[in-house]
Amino acid sequence: MTAMPETTVAARGPVTPRSDSAGAGLPGLRDAVHAEWTKFRTVSSTGWLLLTSVVVTIGASVIASSVVKCGSAASCSADPTKVGLTGVALGQIALAVLAALFVTSEYSTGMIRISLTAVPLRTTMLAAKAIVLTSAALVAGVASVLASVLIGGLLEPGNGFTAANGFRPMTLTHGAVLRAAGGSVLYFGLIALFSLGLATALRDSGLAITVVLGLLLVLPIFGNMILNPHWERRFQRYSPMDAGLAIQVTRNIGKQPIGPWEGLGVLGLWAAAAMLAGWFVLRFRDA
Amino acid sequence: MITTTPTPTPYRSAQRPGPDGFAQLLRAEWTKFRTVRAWAVGLVAAAVLAALATIALAGAASDKGNPGAQNPGAVGPGGEAVTDQFTFVHQALAGNGSITAALTSLTGTVPIPPGAMPQAAVRALQSEGLRPWSKAGLIIRASLKPGSAYAAVMATGAHGVRMQYDYTHDIAGQAGTPSAAAPAWLRLSRSGDTITGYDSADGTHWTKIGTATLAGLPSTVQAGLFVTSPDLFLTSQGFASNNGVQVSTLATAKFNDISRHGAWPAAGWTGSTIGEPTTALQKALCGHPDCIKLAPGSVPNLGGFGVSGGAYTFSGTGDIAPYVPVLDPLGLSFKGTLVGLIAVIALGALFITTEFRRGMMIRTTFAASPRRGRVLVAKALVIGAVTFVAGLIGAAVAFEVAQSKLSANGWVKSVFPIDSLFSAHGLTMVIGTAGVFALAAVLAMAVGALIRRSAGAIAAVIGLIVVPLILATLMPMTIADWLLRLTPAAAFSVQQGTQYYPQVSHVCLPYNGCYPLSPWNGFTVLAVWAVLAVAGAIYVVRRRDT
Fold first, then answer.
1. Across the interface, do B346 and A210 touch by the CB < 8 Å criterion?
2. Nearby residues of B262 by Cβ (< 8 Å), 6 or more positions away
3. Which residues of chain B neighbour A67 with C-beta distances below 8 Å?
4. What torsion do the CA atoms of B139, B144, B146, B151 make, to the nearest 10 degrees?
């Protein structure tokens, strides 16, 4: 990605004030989104991290789809859709890094002062960042989830996930699979917001990514390792990654610790809380 | 610009140049670390959080609903939980004496009750009937009571002739599986408290395998022939289907040319089944509806024996070995140290990436000490040392408190002993965890030097160390096994709380806290990653501007 568009704007001559913002004196959300989008796309790490997220998601999903084998539905509790979307748990890491850097790099370079001079309304700036970032996360998510489902759907029948063995094949025409795929795309969007919110509150890229990945990756391990059924259930219901990935379940939904939409809702609450914390710090603390 | 003034001679300080040895470099890096207050806070937080999270996990570890918190078998002479179940054809030996026999056959089957499993699965299992640690041979025991002191010499399914005593000790003898053409000649000789095992390929040339001293052995002991065969574990793992099927196996042995010396009774042999499996044992060992246990009395000659032409033939099931629990509560609780681990990964990366971010700093560092390699090595030593200390303190506190929490929660000491901090086990866990902290920080520092970005370096190293742990509990066994052998996550094997014995087959599911590599081998895998990363960082930094 290059900074080409700026030069073309500058070559156009004196900039005439735009009518929609001239009267108010303050830029609106449209301008803020435009500014954030320009900052977002002109940094080379954006492209690399989005590409990493997509490649890692598809790669890990394809590997899982080709190695997990099942004899029959009766003897194996594996969920073909969940298997085919394994990569989401890995691809989220690059996306979380991208989201954290989107705000913390402004603090480390001092850019935040220019950003806030241009868009003094903190809420508008944060909302613009959220809109730009979530859109990018959703687009990347659609690409990686669609590819994972299509490739996994071709590979999995060879590993015993066939209708004859009692499995519903992973095709998007099936309602539960569509929910899992669409939900996984939303999952990416919520993870981006979760990371953006915490990073806005913490302001330091190292600290932010450590806290985000700690909450995302270590809590599920605790849920897995704790030798207490009550606490195991609590971890699975309320930790952001376990709850959010409940949306990928298509088999034995009633036996899961949390329902698909309820789980994604829990992640939504985490993301909302993080964004609120970020907004609060941005609004009431000097940059 | 045009100037006419002559070029001035460069300024030279009148002061003598300061020392620039490696010690000065270390001191400079140490000063940089200790003067950033946030890093000191992070280091203390890493130690405190590692200990607190581990203690919290141990405190929550309930013995209820977890099969294996209790000892399902007997307690051995050392106070440890043991499995002591076999078929024994025995006589009372008063005083000193010896017994010799030739084992001419050792075979195994999987006796599955009709209807318990699909026929295809039963057929597939039959080749697994003779377990590598199915055993038959000669044994001298203090009594018939399960858990009593013993010494035995035996042929095994796949590990040749062994001498074993008091459950935990195992010495190798000659190789090979016995057959009619190549019988395994075995001899066990008692003199006071000392029992000596011999083997021979021909019955004339004997080799001593080892000597066992069983303190307090009564003058009259039970001695004779035994057969036993451990359970077969069929495990599969993958996407919340951690299946474990445990099946009893049955070994049948044929003994020829039995001869005795010493004060043996004139009366004949008695056949007994030692350690009949109780319902509690079956439940504790299985804890799964698919568990198939042999019904007592369903096998001919189990608990008895057949004699024909001087050859004794009989069958047995079980094991004479330490009891290895399926779950590892201490090792699982130690995953609490992950909280501290991600903090030291962040510290390791930030220790160098902040210098790149403030471009001035790295240039100053390299101007003061232009040899890039030495700077990176000094940084690695400093960050490694401080994170090692943090890990050592956190893990030592966690080890002490977590064990007592588990014990208070009902995890019995015979299965989950409370080890001293300075026992081999305590030192491995605590120093191992501290070492994992240090190596992870060094790896993060090297990755930070390579990519020069904090967030990217931290995320990459957390991804390398933590993500394999998550995948290892999700993926099928073969993939999980390789993940825990090749990725830096292999090093978590130093946190194994359960002692595994080579002579006992055990179920090794990462989900239960078991790792495929032995503690220090796993640790070496992480060390190789860290060394390669530092080497790569030195190579790249020397070739690159700042």
1. yes
2. B93, B95, B96, B97, B98, B190
3. 475-476, 478-479
4. -20
- H helix intervals, B261-371: 279-286, 329-333, 338-357, 359-368
Average pLDDT of chain B, as a whole number? 85
Mean pLDDT of B428-457: 95
Q: Is B476 on the interface with A (CB under 8 A)?
A: yes
* pLDDT at site B28: 86
Closest among B140, B134, B142 to B103, alpha carbons compared: B134
| Per-residue tokens: B241 | 């289907």
Round to whole Å and give the CA distance between B379 and B14.
31
Report the residue of B41, B326, B470 to disrupt the A interface, i.e. the one with the largest count of A CBs within 10 Å. B470
Verify whether the Cβ–Cβ distance B455 to A213 is below 8 Å: no
Distance of alpha carbon B133 from alpha carbon B158, whole angstroms: 7
pLDDT recorded at residue B236: 60
Q: What is the DSSP string of B471-486?
A: HHHHS-HHHHHHHHHH
Assembly ipTM: 0.87
Please tell me the distance from the alpha carbon of residue A217 to that of residue A241, in angstroms, as a whole number.
7
Backbone angles phi, psi at B77, to 5 degrees: -60, -30
Residues of chain A in contact with residue B489, where contact means CB-CB under 8 angstroms, are none
Compare CB distances from A228 to B61, B354, B456 and report the shortest one's residue: B61
Q: Which two tokens stand for residue A35?
A: 């500014």
* Whether the Cβ atoms of residue B153 and residue B187 lie closer than 8 Å to each other: yes
SS3 of B397, please? helix
Whose CA is closest to B324, among B284, B383, B276, B384? B284
φ and ψ of A237, to 5 deg: -80, -35
| Count of positions (residues) in chain A | 287
pLDDT at B392: 97
Closest residue, chain B, to A97 (C-alpha): B455
> What is the reported pLDDT for B359?
67
d(CA A7, CA A14): 13
Helix, coil or strand: residue B127: coil
Which of B245, B333, B405, B474 has the highest number of chain A CBs within 10 A, making it the mutation to test binding with A? B474
Total Cβ atoms within 10 A of residue B240: 17
In tens, the pLDDT along A146-194 reads: 999 999 999 988 888 888 877 887 888 888 999 999 999 999 999 999 9
Residue among A77, A207, A225 minimizing CB distance to B240: A77
Compute φ and ψ for A35, nearest 5 degrees: -65, -45
Helix segments in B229-335, DSSP class H: 279-286, 329-333
Distances (CA, A) of A143 to A137, A138, B273: 10, 9, 64
Residue of A nearest to B53 (CA): A222
CA A244, CA A215: separation in Å to the nearest integer? 13
> Cβ of A253: how many Cβ atoms within 10 Å?
12
What is the pLDDT of chain A when averaged over all its residues? 87
User: Residues of A numbered 206-235 whose beta carbons fall under 8 angstroms of chain B's beta carbons: which are they?
Assistant: 206-210, 213-214, 217-218, 220-222, 224-229, 231
CA distance B369 to B362: 10
Sign of the CA dihedral with B343 first, then B348, B349, and B350 last: positive
Confidence band, pLDDT 50/70/90 cuts, at residue B16: low
Residue of B nearest to A93 (CA): B459
